[in-house]
Amino acid sequence: MAGQAGADARRQPRWIDYVAIARPEHWVKHVFILPGLVLAYVVHPDAGAHVARSLVLGLIAAGLLASANYVVNEALDATFDAYHPEKANRPAVTTRLSPRVVMVEYALLSSLGLFLAMRLGALFGWTGVLFLASGLAYNVRPLRLKDQPFLDVLSEAVNNPIRLTFGWSMVSPSTIPPSSLLLAFWMGGAFLMAVKRFAEYRAVVADVGREQLVCYRRSFRGYSEESLLVSAFLYAMMSGFFLAVFLVKYRVEYVLALPFVAALFAVYLRVGLKKRSRAQAPERLLQERTLVAVVAVLVFVFLLLTFVDLPFVSQLSDPYLIPVPGAGPA
User: Fold this and answer.
1) Contact 187/244 with Cβ under 8 angstroms?
2) What are the Cα distances from residue 183, in Å, to 74, 207, 226?
């Protein structure tokens, strides 16, 4: 294989390579912290006077913990990433990273991240512990869930409710987000990951064939294009269901935002269906103008419905049967 053939030619690492494996550019994924913060305000409108300080500290803590997980991911995936047309250029593949330095880097990032997390309260702190544990379960044997079909998607998607809880705990550190909201974000994350896997499947197979794709990621042994699309459809439906449960229970006005959520799912799926889809690399999604526009509209609608009360909407949740004229009593 080309990736293996070049292994002996790996160069000595520079300090910038150790920074790169922490993927600081992926901190943008912590945007999922913000919905947790806003929704906590909806449920607890009198809470969170300290939120400005907590937000800054919390974003730094979450970023450090995420980078710790990325360090493990990069180090343990180097031999597999060599089979990927683009990931073969990552520092862990092209350089001789020192295992000792990598372990020290992980220890520093995780310990500093947990130190800051614990300063924000028990909920944020233990959520940080769960974040690190999920990263180890995803990447490290004997579990290494990323090698198992469907479990790889579900285990990576759990980062979404974790990030949601980070945001929630900044406003309401004494309560846990409702299970319906956590499940909605988990299934929503699973939808995003399944579409990402689908895009990756098509692109890598087109470039180097399915055999090398399986060498890159073993979970692809149990996938096909059809199974990935069907699973994405299932996750989207389940996310919508759990989200509707939360909205009706805690702020029924949000029900009016559901069509925009559905539009977001549809546009993201359309992005995933493109050749050489940017869904393979979430940090590139900002280049998808339609997707960005839909997200902006959705954020605006949610903010509007957060502060505007619409009493007539509550009637949508009341049981009511429309009588047929002239049919007499039921």
Assistant:
1) no
2) 28, 36, 24
Phi/psi at 95 (nearest 5 deg)?
-125, 165
Neighbour count for residue 239 (Cβ, 10 Å) = 24
d(CA 202, CA 271): 13
Segment holding 125, helix H or strand E: helix 122-139
**Per-residue pLDDT tens over the stretch 2-36:** 444 444 577 887 888 888 888 888 887 788 888 88
The H or E element that residue 203 is part of is: helix 179-208
Reduce the DSSP state of residue 95 to 3 states and report it: strand
Instruction: Take residue 154 and report the two structure tokens written for it.
Output: 């579900």
Distance, CA of 243 to CA of 114 (rounded, Å): 30
Q: Is the peptide bond before 142 cis (omega within 30 degrees of 0)?
A: yes
Angle at 277 between CA 16 and CA 33, to 5 degrees: 60
Query: Which pair of structure tokens corresponds to residue 226?
Result: 């059809």
Read off the pLDDT of residues 171-197 as tens digits, 9 standing for 90 and up: 888 899 999 999 999 999 999 999 999
pLDDT tens, position by position, 95-140: 888 889 999 999 999 999 999 999 999 999 999 999 999 999 999 9
Q: What does each C-alpha distance from 308 to 6, 44, 301, 302 come to in angstroms?
A: 60, 16, 10, 10
DSSP classification of residue 141: T
